[in-house]
Write a structure and sequence with these properties.
Rossmann fold, two-stranded parallel sheet, 11 helices, 13 strands, 40% helix, globular
Length: 326
């Protein structure tokens, strides 16, 4: 009998790439999503020819008869992005905690072998900013919330509450928590730095605005993030595992990232440098020893290859976004 997996947020960025990989390895896939971030696109429609899609708003409890029993649950559903946190921080916090509570309640009644939670690098950012940790940041840094009133704080707080709920869950399943560090790739939406840069380039925006030019990040291609996610979830150990997921080899400043994309696009617009957004960390770099020791993980997609692939995808998708193609 083949493995069966449930992916919450299955119509989203990482969810769709994860579903494709699980299907490729023979796993039966169930996708749970409320489609709050827009209608299903062609990629999701094609995926549904091979996976079962179940509409549901995870702010509400999951009825027992809605889903089949599964071996693994990948809980990716969440409100993400600085933009959403700035616009409605209370809704981001409430939604992200409620979805985790309802997934945990369902798992308690219908125990899978393992439950994976997608968490965030922002859980460790406050400790680094406060001088309580250095980079690369390991998983055991203390959680620090330097500016609770800052709207973007709602996202990290919701994720750390979700982590604690899992770590103290009274359930008969293995707990896996992956803290994603700046995952990028095709179909990631338009609310993150790489697609925002690409969209400005494809629109011919001159001058080109750049916020926090000297801030650095280490970007992880979605294929590598998916490989790490699956490897963590399938580990047979009963001990809970919290691990950073990322790529520590390609730390790059926002300015250097823009210049690489300029080269790919074949254009070099004039830059206008602005201050970084409030609360945005100066550096972000994961320590990957826990993940590597547990799974043997090594990132395979270098930044130049990933940027070229991502740029090509957005170049083909942008006309549909702006209604130029019917």
């Amino acid at each position: 009998m083949s493995e069966r997996a449930l992916i919450t947020g299955g119509a989203g960025f990482i969810g769709l790439h994860l579903a494709r990989e699980l299907l490729r390895t023979g796993t039966e896939v169930v996708l749970l999503d409320d489609f709050s971030r827009g209608r299903p696109d062609d990629a999701f429609t094609a995926l549904c020819g091979h996976a079962r899609a179940v509409p549901h708003d995870l702010r509400l409890p999951i009825p027992d008869d809605l889903l089949p029993t599964v071996d693994h649950v990948y809980h990716l559903a969440a409100k993400v992005g600085v933009g959403q946190s700035n616009r409605a921080p209370g809704d981001v916090l409430r939604t992200n905690v409620l979805t985790t509570v309802n997934v945990l309640d369902w798992c308690a009644r219908n125990p899978p072998q393992a439950l994976f939670l997608s968490s965030t690098s922002e859980v460790g950012d406050g400790a680094v900013r406060s001088g309580l940790a250095t980079l690369p940041a390991p998983e055991d840094v203390p959680y620090v919330l330097p500016d609770p009133a800052l709207p973007r704080a709602a996202y990290s707080l919701g994720k750390v509450v979700s982590e604690v709920l899992l770590l103290h869950a009274d359930g008969e399943f293995r707990v896996r928590i992956g803290r994603y560090h700046n995952v990028y790739g095709p179909r990631m939406g338009y609310a993150h730095v790489i697609p925002q840069f690409i969209e400005r380039l494809l629109a011919g925006q001159h001058p080109f605005p750049l916020y926090g030019a000297h801030q650095t990040r280490s970007f992880c291609h979605v294929d590598d993030a998916v490989a790490a996610t699956v490897a963590m979830t399938r580990l047979p150990s009963d001990e809970p595992l919290v691990a950073n997921i990322g790529n520590a080899d390609d730390e790059i400043s926002a300015l250097a990232l823009a210049e690489r994309l300029f080269t790919i696009a074949g254009t070099h617009p004039e830059l206008v440098i602005h201050e970084p957004p409030p609360g945005s960390p100066e550096r972000r770099l994961p320590d990957l020893k826990v993940l590597t020791t547990a799974t043997g993980y090594q990132p395979r997609v270098d930044l130049d290859t990933g940027l070229r692939q991502t740029y090509a995808w957005y170049a083909s998708a942008l006309p549909y976004r702006h209604g130029a193609v019917s």
